[in-house]
Please model this.
Amino acid sequence: MDINKTRVPMRELPVEDRIKKFDEVPLGYTEEQAIAEAGRCIQCNNAPCIRDCPVKIDIKTFLKQVAEGKFKEAFLTLKKDNPIPAIAGRVCPQESQCESVCTLGKIGDAANIGKLESFAADWARKNNVREEFDIEEKPQKVAVIGTGPASISCAVDLRKNGYKVTMYEALHKAGGVLQYGIPEFRLPRDVVDDELSYLTDIGVDIRLNRIIGQNVSFEELRSEYDAIFIGTGAGAPLFLGIDGEKLNGVYSANEFLIRVNLMKAYKFPQYDTPIKVKDKVGVIGAGNVAMDAARSALRLGAEVHVLYRRTKNEAPARKEELRHAIEEGINFVELVAPKRILGKDGWVKGIELIKMKLGEPDSSGRPRPVPIDVSEFTMDLDTVVVALGTKPNRLFLSRTPELKTTKKGVITVDDALATNIEGVFAGGDAISGGSTVIHALGEGRKAAKSIDAYLSDKGKTGSV
Ligand SMILES: Cc1cc2nc3c(=O)[nH]c(=O)nc-3n(C[C@H](O)[C@H](O)[C@H](O)COP(=O)(O)OP(=O)(O)OC[C@H]3O[C@@H](n4cnc5c(N)ncnc54)[C@H](O)[C@@H]3O)c2cc1C
Model:
């Protein structure tokens, strides 16, 4: 058997075009390219790709179907286990999941599973292919709080199982981070809107502008529904706690990205949310969120510096995002930690940094950054974006004091994702404090199974 060890390359928007606009960077496979790339899969017996996929997509079958040109069947295989394949194909860290264990990867490039996933889902969208199934209606009602990936997969599985599902979303658009966080150059909004429209197609009721704990109480939901799923995410930013963080021109990455993505600040004044990005922007952190903020700032016309306490090799961002950021001209200032943000007349004018070196590995397995004595230096900056991670928003939790949380402020759940309140389940970033789209999807599916078992056991309707 002839094995092609090299991936079929994917076309991308040329750098000079991408840095001026928010258009998607990877341009997708053509049908011929997809068939050739999927045909590289050797259909190995043990299929470790399926084992390591958090939602257990039948990757082996879907690749075979693409290789045979059966794109509709490939899409339906994906959709059985993943309600949002066009999104997941674009943003999942496949390189550390399915692709990292691909048997082909031992002798050459792993199969390009992510890009083939988005290819099949895009093909279905263009050809109006929808998954069809019969729903056997059940009398019980389930409320889902939030509309991010965890809530999406939970709502879809419950609805397919016949439950009446109502989703409550605080914002004016559904999708969670997919809508307000990840920029369009990685995840175009027509893709998000299309995959979300599937929820309403199958009868999920999505209610926007409903903040549970503020304009709708948790008690109201408990009295109206037979079970509840909490997928409220982790939207509250972490800050450094250093001097100068309150200066004008300092943003949390969340605020920065919400302004840019959800409120379309990059189209100001056509849209009425402005964003002040002056000449030199410093982004603190090197995860996906930091790369999204840095690449957005670049597209708004800034000179961008990523300030990171380790080196690029240890950066937690996806490899593709790092490569794109470097190609686009973002400067990485490695081995530095911020000491204080400097200001003038209430506005950022620079940052004081301390140099670091790499030490012994810490609990993450990466070398610990160690400060070097008397190594402070300053850098001129006009804007600082802090991208250090997030934690669950206190608003919902403070209004539900009976819900048990850990010291870190995430919701406590058991193995079935049940909280301490009967009939109330939780998943996604609300229980992890920040993870990935595919893990959130996996937890949403797991919670849907537990809710089904709980309601089947209960066998009757009634409030939670
Ligand atoms: C900028 C950014 C980039 C990322 N990039 C990637 C990536 O490339 N790949 C990847 O796998 N992961 C990425 N992640 C992480 C990933 O997006 C999250 O792990 C995932 O979205 C978590 O899903 P979730 O459903 O738990 O929560 P979320 O997506 O956060 O959704 C929670 C939803 O609940 C709503 N909500 C909160 N409180 C209430 C309330 N009281 N009432 C009603 N609604 C409420 C929120 O408005 C939100 O819409 C990124 C995260 C960010 C912020």
In short: The chain has three domains: 15-126, 141-235+391-458, 239-388. The chain is about 35% helix and 15% strand. The longest strand covers residues 347-361.
